[in-house]
Amino acid sequence: MKIELTIPTKLSDIKLSQYQKFARTTKDSEDDNFIARQIVGIFCNISDNVVGKIKAKDFESIVTDITDVLGQKPEFNPKFTIGGVK
């Protein structure tokens, strides 16, 4: 089965709602496998069922890539748009 994923490559690719969901879901967990599955599922926007079908080698690579993105230092942007208003 082929699965096409969009993997975030920079912090701006990750929505605040995704990060909040990840933080909420994993806050009390010390299970590395559970956390890794949540990383892939939440930040690639796929179900846990699909996450389970990813090959182990590819899964580890995706987790590493996303973890690297989460470790990036955010750049300050003093201007933003909310609801179409700058």
Can you describe what's shown?
By secondary structure, the chain is an all-alpha fold. It has one domain. The protein has helices at 16-26, 32-43, 48-51, 56-70. Helix 1 (16-26) packs antiparallel against helix 2. The protein is globular. It starts with 15 loop residues before the first helix and ends in a 16-residue tail after the last helix. The mean pLDDT is 92.
Give the gist of this structure.
The protein is mainly alpha-helical. 49% of the residues lie in helices and 0% in strands.
Low-confidence segments? none
Global geometry: globular
Structural class: mainly alpha
Estimate the mean pLDDT confidence.
92
State which percent range the strand residues make up.
Answer: under 5%
| Main beta-sheet strand count, sense and barrel state | none
Q: Give me the number of helical elements.
A: 4
Helical percentage: 40-55%
- What's the number of domains? 1
Question: How many beta strands in the DSSP annotation?
Answer: 0
Q: Kindly report how far apart the N and C termini lie.
A: 44 Å
Order of helices and strands: HHHH
Radius of gyration from CA coordinates:
14 Å
Features:
single chain, 86 residues, mainly alpha, 49% helix, globular
Please describe the topology of this protein.
Elements: H1 16-26, H2 32-43, H3 48-51, H4 56-70
Helix pairs in contact: 1-2, 2-4
